[in-house]
């Protein structure tokens, strides 16, 4: 394209560069659409642990064996059946797409993600809890508590203040009677120099990348291993760049499978996820535009972002929630890009308008009680088209996906990145289909 020449029109424009936006863009691209994605910064996806929560077995008792627990698909169905406002319920028949959506995300991000199993993998946090994840990074898979056939060495860096191997091992010991391995804490003399105890996760991750560094870490680990160790768990700092192959090199030098813990904020696995998405989007031919959306009215009309005007037949709004900026708190809850109505979780459409109250009024005292503030977002129809004030789709070619959707509470129901993948997949395909079908007949703005 020569300077001054107008850009060719797009079929699909995705607003938001988290996992929901990335999956939507890739799914639309797979259907043959010309796609651009606008984002102003990383959002919640880049802060996540790096593992994808779809749903865990809410009926399991603390003493139930891990292997007896329901898998992510059945757990998602049950969650949808219990919570009619949850995106798993709202998509209706679309929930059948969940296995295809996960397989799609895993294959698009193949270098990063291990293929899904039918069950959740049980992965350790830095606090010694085991969380169920439907998808995880390859660097985490060997730490699945049901896969370790012997003792699990839980390694920390001696003197480092970020992780406590004894805390993690102590917590994981609770899962040994449930089918998990026997954990044993070990301390490695790595990063033990002056001031190194305060190195941040991304600094440690970079320090393990150069030639020889991961190998040295592996040799120290091998010397510290307890008898009968079948795998080792390390802090979540096994390299920022995938091509540095830190887990593989460390594992070869240690002589056993190694895995990293789930990431905590600031999360190296979360940054790795963001990097892998951006690379894949570029490779797949999605045009990436950096900058905030400055003006947006409706699909078919010019949208101004990053100093550029973009026109596309259909849009996918994937702007996230509070972290991403898709829902803002300005005395009340609002959706800043299009001014779509926001609903506070659990809100009865016929009842008082909770979302118009000050955000602080939307929390409840009990930490295990549903929190309307944390489940606030857009209402959508089963095709994931946001509803306007009149309860009807705001625009026939506007779709929404991910955290901007209301009705789910990732911190409580464990469905954050799972919702992003399912709804990104459904919305991206729907947007491509609608846009390509309408393209021949010419678009009207509404
Ligand atoms: C700290 C933390 C840890 C979490 N850990 C996990 C976990 O381990 N597993 C899990 O399954 N879930 C986890 N979640 C939940 C999960 O991360 C989110 O539900 C999910 O990332 C939402 O993805 P998204 O793509 O919808 O939004 P985001 O990832 O937030 O992306 C939103 C995007 O929209 C862009 N955007 C917004 N407004 C504009 C605008 N006006 N112009 C241009 N761009 C805009 C942002 O810049 C960003 O790129 C966690 C959440 C948090 C906050």
From TrEMBL:
Gene3D superfamilies the record matches: FAD/NAD(P)-binding domain
Alphabetized UniProt keyword annotations: Flavoprotein, Oxidoreductase
Superkingdom of origin organism: Bacteria
Domain FAD-dependent oxidoreductase 2 FAD-binding: 11-418
First and last residue of the signal peptide: none
One family name in Pfam for this protein: FAD_binding_2
Name of this protein: FAD-dependent oxidoreductase 2 FAD-binding domain-containing protein
